[in-house]
Amino acid sequence: MSPSYVAAIDQGTTSTRCLLFDRQGRMVSVAQRQHRQHYPRPGWVEHDAEEIWRLVCDLVPLALEDAGVTPAEVVALGVTNQRETTVVWDRVTGRPVGPAIVWQDTRTATDLPALTSDFEVAELTRRTGLPLSPYSSGPKLRWILDSDPRLRERAERGELLFGTMDTWLVWKLTGGLHVTDATNASRTLLMDLETLQWDPELLECMQVPAAMLPEIRSSAGVIGHTREPIEGIPISAMLGDQQASLFGQTAFEPGDAKCTFGTGSFLLMNTGPDIVRSRSGLITTVAHATEGEPTVYALEGSIAVAGALVEWCRTSLGLVRSAAEIETLARTVDDNGGCYVVPAFAGLYAPYWESRAQGIIAGLTGYITKGHIARAVLEASAWQAKDVVDAMVVDAQVPMTSLAVDGGMTANNLLMQTLADVLDVPVIRPMMAESVALGAAYAAGLAVGYWPDRRVLKANWHRASEWRSEIADDERDRSHAAWRQAIDLSIAWGRGRP
Ligand SMILES: Nc1ncnc2c1ncn2[C@@H]1O[C@H](COP(=O)(O)OP(=O)(O)O)[C@@H](O)[C@H]1O
Ligand SMILES: O=P(O)(O)OC[C@H](O)CO
Q: Could you tell me if 314 and 322 are in contact, meaning their C-beta atoms sit under 8 angstroms apart?
């Protein structure tokens, strides 16, 4: 029998990857490239959707070539993506009408209250599981249509199409299929969580013409076949990246959770077929929707800035030359020296949802060195996760007994130890850190029968490292109180500004 593989395209915030996996869930090839980040004004973040498509065109053949795999040996392709990032393009020419507005972008923060004139925010949240926030795609799409009346007219005539990155890429890959999946659609503020359909009242509230919306499909099942950059590969999964990593961590049972530490960090807990409504500032989202099975939902704590803060230290401050160096620098000191960094670059997401909050560095004295700041930078990711875990425990009404982690930042052992210290539960990193791509490949492979069932996938999961708390309760409590004070300052600073 000739070998066969499953491919995944992981279109992330900072880079795009194409990976190939074998039946044991081992990565046999990875091709990866970064794309440009554009910050045209404070709070604005944009990507060039054409640039990202060109990268996909380069990366897919490269991943196959590197592994010596022929297209015929690729039995399925899963597409996973940064969620919420919004693209509008011309149905005929296929050209975007402007830059993609990235999920972190806060340009709509001041318009949000006006969006709900006919609609109670509570009802919006009840239907969608989302807070009214610039994070979602709906406000971004409305902003694009409001920015030029001609665009709105063209959208109403069906000449323009909307999509998140999954939709954009599948449209390009298939030569014109305009679809999304329920996980991505659940991030728009336009889909009803129960019916998994676009909600006409929500569309009216966001002033989005139905003619430009993609069809909402299941997350797994053959959607179509690729025409470019390689012809004939079945696309059999589409999943938002955080839902994909939940799947890749084989978090199939209610109560299973994971946290991915990449540009942002995202803690998701599978809640099974139940739509659990958060009272603590979490999102309710679709974990995956598989044809013929009940929809699986999740509670999510989204944190906008995690690795992005390390990246900012590298590119904007020149504090380190590589992301990994932040650990070396942080290890030059024993503690944070009383310094706290709140990276509210996109306001604060879960569980605070303060779109006007701004970043601060608190506790500066002449004693503070670069090392203390590096430590505070890493601790910010751990404390943000702690606040989300606390909210999750209240909402899900189950204790968190351990936390599975993945993503680029989990290479940082000091951060992983700090995380175990502040959460006071074991933090577990699997052998396969590329859970996002693996999850998309798993969903795609299951859909075409490459893997017979989820049990087999569980057997592929192997623990690589585990960290346990090494600090006393009173030390944790003291530092947590200081962190919460810094959060309050960040919110007050943002609110107090014009
Ligand atoms: N050793 C490290 N320590 C701290 N942060 C790191 C380390 N390695 C990578 N990162 C951060 O992780 C992020 C990249 O992770 P990745 O999972 O590839 O992100 P994404 O999918 O969001 O593009 C970057 O923001 C980078 O700064
Ligand atoms: O691409 P990532 O890993 O930064 O994930 C971004 C999230 O999907 C945004 O919701």
A: yes
